[in-house]
């Protein structure tokens, strides 16, 4: 079982150049739980994760881990406790999958220590958990986007930290692999007690997998709490400028957000008749060309 650590932001202000992205933010990450951060594009989700992992220094305020400011901790000491999977990581050219995943063990290597059986076991377990064993000897730059994403997740798992921050871990993954990765992270949380903080764009996946949901808007904390407390029609409208209906997810029992587009008919309203189009009927490439197959 992992050790539970307390990670908080206190009066945190973050930005780039003349632009302030996060302003005077206070929040606490529940130890041993899964926290998901949601919000509109450019609201500061990734910026917040970068600061919590000490990659971005705050303009004001601080990030505190177990009573110590993360930006004052030695990098290697922090990396043994807290791991980060950024949004667009870059692998060294030509590196193999097994070598990249092995880099997750770097924080555990001392000046005089050598690679040992524990390191081998951690890498093997990470490859197995992410179903990337068959890719172990392949170059990372030869892989598809989805395969690379699973390899990066394997590297984060090999680091074996008590806190794991992930920025859009389902990027490039199809629906099946998205669920697979989120189930994997849930298993990690339930079996080891790993505290997980991740950014997700899909509100319904966020609500299904989060114990604690954080909604950012206008540079600050708009709402936080359980998915049922945070994912409301009012919050979706305020944070995403989107009308919606919230129902119960028949699979998880969590809230499920149904977006309302401007072409949908609500409350028995009569739809506006559409003028017939004078354009020729659309034909897909598959239907227009005999014997062709749609890719």
From TrEMBL:
Protein's membrane topology: Peripheral membrane protein
Keyword Cell membrane annotated: yes
Keyword annotations of the record: ATP-binding, Cell membrane, Ion transport, Iron, Iron transport, Membrane, Nucleotide-binding, Transport
Domain of life: Bacteria
Subcellular location: Cell membrane
Transmembrane segments: none
Spans annotated as Disordered: 267-295
Compositionally biased spans, kind Polar residues: 275-295
Protein name per the record: ABC-type Fe3+-siderophore transport system, ATPase component
Organism: Streptomyces globisporus
């Amino acid at each position: 079982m992992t050790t539970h650590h307390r990670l908080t932001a206190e009066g945190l202000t973050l930005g780039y150049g003349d632009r302030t992205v996060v302003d005077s933010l206070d929040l606490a990450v529940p130890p041993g739980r899964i926290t998901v951060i949601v919000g509109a594009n450019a609201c500061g989700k990734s910026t917040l994760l970068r600061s919590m992992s000490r990659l971005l220094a705050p303009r004001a305020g601080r990030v505190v881990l177990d009573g110590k400011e993360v930006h004052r901790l030695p990098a290697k000491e922090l990396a043994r406790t807290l791991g980060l999977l950024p949004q667009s990581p870059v692998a060294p050219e030509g590196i193999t999958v097994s070598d990249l995943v092995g880099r997750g063990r770097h924080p555990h290597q001392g000046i005089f220590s050598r690679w040992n059986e524990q390191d081998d076991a951690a890498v093997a377990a990470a490859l197995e958990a992410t179903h990337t064993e068959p890719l172990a000897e392949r170059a990372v730059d030869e892989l598809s986007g989805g395969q690379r994403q699973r390899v990066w997740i394997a590297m984060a798992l090999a680091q074996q930290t008590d806190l794991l921050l992930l920025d859009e871990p389902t990027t490039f993954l199809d629906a099946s692999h998205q669920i697979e990765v989120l189930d994997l992270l849930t298993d990690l949380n339930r079996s080891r007690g790993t505290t997980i903080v991740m950014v997700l764009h899909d509100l319904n996946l966020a609500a299904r997998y989060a114990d604690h949901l954080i909604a950012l808007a206008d540079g600050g904390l708009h709402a936080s709490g359980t998915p049922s407390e945070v994912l409301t029609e009012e919050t979706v409208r305020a944070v995403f400028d989107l009308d919606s209906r919230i129902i119960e997810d028949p699979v998880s029992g969590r809230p499920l957000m149904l977006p309302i587009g401007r072409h949908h008919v609500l409350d028995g309203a009569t739809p506006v008749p559409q003028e017939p189009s004078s354009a020729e009927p659309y034909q897909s490439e598959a239907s227009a060309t005999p014997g062709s197959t749609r890719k």
